[in-house]
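Entry type: protein chain
Record version: 2
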Amino acid sequence: MKEIKASEFKHIPVLFEESIDSLNIKPDGIYVDCTSGGGGHSTAIAKRLDGGRLIAIDRDPQAIATLKERLSPFECVTLVHDNFFNIKNILASLDIDGVDGILADLGVSSHQLDEPSRGFSFHHDAPLDMRMSLEGMSAAQAVNTLSQDELRKIIYEYGEEKFAPSIARAIVKARAEKPIETTLELSEIIKSAMPAAAKRDSHPARRTFQAIRIYVNGELDGLGNAVEDMFDCLNKNGRLSIITFHSLEDRTVKKQLAEFAKGCTCPKNFPVCVCGKSPRAKVMKAVAPSSGEVSDNNRSRSARLRTAEKIV
């Protein structure tokens, strides 16, 4: 993997002002940017702090190298190379027992998509990688070793691709002749497995690439637990804000936040509450990008910002 200069790591934050405002930042508060990436959100948070602290986390080593430079002017920032799914351990290691706001942008960074060597995009011919952390199983290893049934399930469940059976079959057939090594090789195999009508509205490989990326990076494995862990780390009146980019993760986040806001679960005919449950959070209305933002950055079109405030 080639070395990336900080100036080359570009990311366009989605719902930027909305997400920063959603945190209701206190100058002396403690905040966490779970997916610091190119540092856009982290920089904006750090600028609003005076006596406060920011924990900037990212699992991508190229992002960490960039963040060391971009966030160096801010003494309030602590940089952590890790997966935010480990947020409880991260904060415990820093002797932090509660924070006032947490932001998580669950999307792939613009740099990861646009840098051909990362192998995320079907628009460039590059080694089939897709690993956010640059560690573990690559996309090439996945498509060349998983069984046809495993591939079908991944493509159908994570990509919501109705042609998953034929795509999985085509992948297995192609790899029997030679290993699938590049993004365009995989893209052409996917195209060959789909009817002409299915190729008209969007790129035919989009859903399958999404599915394989989600699988390789474990993006949905334990996401619900991670949301609960983040919420548990909040102080009273702290805010948790999460930006999602596809329906699978958005449903998970929406469901988990709704659980935090649930109150009494006793049957309606009970004269008094016996369960003792009360709402733990106030959930704000989801925010979508404006038409202007979508026009300027088409990748923002499916984004949703969901925020919950801890009330107990």
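Comment: The chain has two domains: 6-106+220-310, 138-217.
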